[in-house]
Amino acid sequence: MSTEESTSELLAVRRRKLESLREAGVEPFPHAYPDVTSVADAKAPHEGLADGEETDARVRVAGRLHARRGQGKMAFLDLDERTGRIQLQARRDVLGDEAFERLLTMDLGDLIGAEGTIFKTRRGELSVLVTEWTLLAKSLRPPPDKHSGLTDTETRFRHRELDLIANPETRDLFIARAKIVSAIRRFLDDEGFIEVETPVLQPIYGGALARPFVTHYNALEKTMYLRIATELYLKRLIVGGLERVYELGKDFRNEGLSPKHNPEFTMLEWYEAYADWEVVAERAERMLRAVGEAVGSDVFAKPFKRETLAGSIQSRVGIDVLANRTLESLQGAMREAGMEIPDEPNWAALVDYLVSKHVEPTLIEPTLLHDYPVELSPFAKRHREHEGLVERFEAFVNGMEVANAFSELNDPDDQRARFEEQVRHAAAGDENAPPFDTDYIFSLEHGMPPTGGIGIGIDRLTMLLMGQKTIREVVLFPALK
């Protein structure tokens, strides 16, 4: 029998069981099962029981049937749910013949509820002596193999629900991700920030160098964009006097897939009035340490090292990018050094290439690269000491960027000139250049106080804290080809 025929027969058997249940007057998909205790909470008060000790403590648990052993007068069943697994002991003399026999016909993967008393077996396993049980949902497809789990990568990502059923470590990973987000909110709330929500669907995209997803708003007969960043709307709130704001939400960039890139990703951005990049850097280090502690990670336990961007490139490839401030000059320096020269549209893009190719992979310890060229940073404030630079840093760990921050540009005339420069880059073929945002200039003309801001990628942060190699492991339903 082929695998396809075998699967078809398994499905047919489960369908027949479904119909048998209905014919017997059993509802295979009831509406509710109230007053359920989690497995963790059911076990916690009784961990100290002696082997073989019984209690009168009644619990009601529910979950997915993972395994079954025994028949005749007694059977043991393993029940899985989010907080753990618990063993059920079913006895014919307690349940009665009909309920006991029906329980033995349940398939692995069926969802059941069980009520009974807690006891510890002679082998030392906390269990529930079942006094009554209920089918909560009939599973019409078999679960992944309980011994080998679900290992096929394509299936794991396309059907994450099966991955969560089969692999407890996957469940633990996404529970940890939730703790990371909660720890971030807790830290920023305690620091006096307020959480806000800004538009995902925008008439003008901006706040980053990236290509957007484009859609059409039928009611307005207008082209709209999924946001590539929350930055410009958040800084308009600073203008409005909110002074410390943050947003946790989805951004979308119409770019390729890689171990570090998913076109839909989660970002944290915060902005605070009267601060500069140094204040932001100090707060970010404290927050990352606190978040790491919340999930038991020491990735951010050490203070961040610091390097200038130009110095980091020169120390690794021997080229002074600030002494070669045109595309042609920098290409020439790279040619003399025997380096590959990519087809980049302008000097800033070529500098960014050098960082990505030759610097970023070497930054294993937590490191801040700072003092970026103004051409790479259309929204950062000019450096107070060095001409042609801005007060910006990016944070890197394990060869991956995890944060981008700067003293925010609040001079509307300078910002207008930066927008105009980006428009020229777009006309010359730079698809990542942001458009001119008239509303943002209008906002700045009302006065934005000195401000520091940062963006931190939640997906990448989770990768780092949980030791994952690819972003697809930490996104529940990643984009796939």
From TrEMBL:
Keywords: Aminoacyl-tRNA synthetase, ATP-binding, Cytoplasm, Ligase, Magnesium, Metal-binding, Nucleotide-binding, Protein biosynthesis. It catalyses: tRNA(Lys) + L-lysine + ATP = L-lysyl-tRNA(Lys) + AMP + diphosphate. CDD domains: LysRS_core, LysRS_N. Pfam families: tRNA-synt_2, tRNA_anti-codon. Mg(2+) 2 binds at E401. Mg(2+) 1 binds at E394, E401. It comes from the Bacteria. This is Lysine--tRNA ligase. The lineage of its organism: Bacteria, Bacillati, Actinomycetota, Thermoleophilia, Solirubrobacterales. The gene is lysS.
